[in-house]
């Protein structure tokens, strides 16, 4: 019988609830339970053979989240968050990026292996208000839940807070053969985990909530739904968790300690399924699990919690018996050889706003690595246990495999491809990293206020036989653009973190909540 893990793997003393102005969750008065919103699938504009065309439009809108006035929100082709984009391995994808917001934004493909820096959509790829840009890429990676979110420097946190995040699902032939739930919206549900604070007239006010240590909201927002429930009409349900919060960690468990069988992580299925009663999702991470409700009957209600707070009700209806068995082997990751003569790269996350004791600079290349060459990265969280916190470390443009944690084996559910990894205070995690495509890519803490404040750096992936030059955006240009969009002076632009970031301008932070 497979072992069942009953803890979160990480130490309780490191949990966010023990650090820095933690806020407990609560449901505002008058909010009735409602069905979990399931983002509709984004329809392509055109399909021709192996080529597919999409339009992704960033829009302003309003959503009725709470009793009273509707909340002003941003979204992708939707009032909040976005529609789920489904791509198949091997497709050549053409995307028109359309910005209908009042300020510049970018479109970052978190977990997608695309060229950098423009296609990747970090801070060097702004799309200005009223502007359209076109990108294209070929999907050449395993089945996974990746995601798209805004990533302008240093307005990432504020724009995600307004709603700019959506799921991007990659499918492949191997997943299609697996006997797992895959009927979207029936037995397969994306679960985008976020939290927000609502102010006067139910509005968001990022500036009022700003915290350099990372913003925590009091109200859970799941797929843009407050107090959701899911009608369970099949014995087994597949949940695709996405850690979409700016800072909050989600420590998930069910009533009766129902076993969750994790089948996938960030960028692939796991080599083997892992059975757990507790799962932790940090900002930027994705985890897919299958839950078997065979022990329950029509009329039962089963609850999913984070810590001691009820997040989602699962309302059990009649279902047919399901005797399918998840295979012992789901995926075989390719582990590239690392030249033993290569030095191990040392990356440190320092305080809440530095990488290798430097704050982010948009025009500085911090490291270079040869395309297609695997190397070891030792990523260290230099915070102390007494004053530190978990930093989820993310790399753009690639996936990695986890080699060790402080010289010991990775956690049991860390053996697939990942792009985001929680690193505890005082801990060093060794990664095996190989970039498949050329470009300039960011690596950073995915507590979004931390990356906005400077805990971010850049690596250039090069081919010595075909050298390239890149135009890298500068902070002065972006700040002037925010100022022009708002009809204010550049020195009056507020973008949290910029006063400490050292990106080239002082006293700036994010346009998204400028009043």
TrEMBL record:
The residue ranges crossing the membrane are none
> What are the protein's UniProt keywords?
Metal-binding, Oxidoreductase
Q: SUPFAM superfamilies of this UniProt entry? A: Cupredoxins (SSF49503)
What span is annotated as the signal peptide, if there is one?
Answer: none
Enumerate the spans annotated as Plastocyanin-like domain: 62-174, 347-460
Q: What family is this protein classified in?
A: Belongs to the multicopper oxidase family.
Q: What is this protein called?
A: Multicopper oxidase domain-containing protein
- What organism, scientifically named, is this protein from? Lactobacillus kitasatonis
């Amino acid at each position: 019988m497979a072992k069942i893990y009953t803890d979160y793997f990480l130490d309780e003393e490191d949990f966010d609830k023990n650090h820095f102005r933690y806020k407990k969750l609560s449901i505002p008065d008058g909010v009735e339970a409602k069905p979990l919103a399931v983002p509709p699938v984004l329809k392509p504009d055109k399909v021709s053979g192996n080529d597919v065309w999409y339009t992704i439009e960033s829009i302003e809108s309003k959503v009725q989240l709470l009793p009273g006035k509707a909340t002003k929100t941003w979204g992708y082709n939707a009032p909040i968050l976005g529609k789920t984009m489904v791509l198949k391995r091997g497709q050549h994808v053409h995307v028109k990026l359309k910005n209908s917001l009042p300020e510049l934004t970018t479109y970052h493909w978190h977990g997608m292996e695309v060229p950098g820096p423009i296609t990747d959509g970090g801070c060097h790829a702004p799309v200005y208000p009223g502007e359209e840009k076109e990108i294209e890429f070929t999907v050449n990676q395993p089945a996974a839940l990746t995601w798209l979110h805004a990533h302008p420097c240093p307005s990432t946190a504020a724009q995600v807070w307004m709603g700019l995040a959506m799921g991007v699902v990659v499918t492949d032939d191997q997943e299609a053969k697996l006997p797992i739930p895959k009927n979207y919206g029936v037995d397969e549900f994306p679960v985008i985990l976020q939290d927000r604070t609502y102010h006067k007239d139910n509005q968001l006010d990022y500036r009022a909530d700003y915290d350099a240590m990372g913003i925590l909201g009091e109200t859970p927002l799941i797929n843009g739904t407050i107090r959701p429930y899911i009608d369970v009409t099949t014995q087994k349900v597949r949940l695709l968790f996405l850690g979409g919060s700016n800072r909050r960690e989600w420590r998930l468990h069910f009533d009766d300690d129902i076993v969750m069988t994790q089948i996938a992580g960030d960028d692939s299925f796991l080599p083997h399924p892992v059975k757990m009663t507790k799962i932790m999702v940090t900002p930027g991470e994705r985890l897919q699990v299958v839950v078997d409700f065979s022990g329950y009957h029509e009329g039962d209600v089963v609850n999913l919690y984070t810590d001691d707070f009820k997040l989602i009700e699962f309302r059990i209806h009649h279902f047919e018996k399901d005797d399918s068995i998840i295979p012992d082997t789901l995926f075989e990751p390719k582990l590239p050889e690392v030249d033993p003569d290569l030095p191990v790269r040392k990356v440190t996350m320092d305080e809440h706003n530095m990488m290798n004791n430097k704050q982010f600079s948009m025009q500085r290349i911090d490291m270079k690595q040869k395309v297609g060459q695997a190397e070891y990265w030792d990523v260290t969280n230099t915070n102390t246990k007494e004053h530190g916190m978990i930093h989820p470390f993310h790399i753009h443009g690639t996936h990695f495999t986890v080699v060790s944690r402080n010289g010991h084996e990775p956690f049991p559910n860390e053996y697939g491809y990942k792009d985001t990894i929680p690193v505890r205070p005082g801990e060093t995690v060794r990664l095996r990293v190989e970039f498949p495509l050329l470009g300039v890519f960011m690596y950073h803490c995915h507590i979004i206020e931390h990356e906005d404040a400077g805990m971010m750096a850049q690596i250039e992936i090069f081919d010595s036989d075909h050298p390239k030059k890149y135009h890298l955006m500068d902070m002065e240009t972006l700040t002037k653009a925010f100022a022009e969009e708002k009809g204010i002076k550049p020195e009056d632009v507020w973008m949290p973190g910029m006063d400490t970031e050292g990106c080239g301008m002082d006293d700036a932070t994010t346009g998204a909540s400028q009043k």
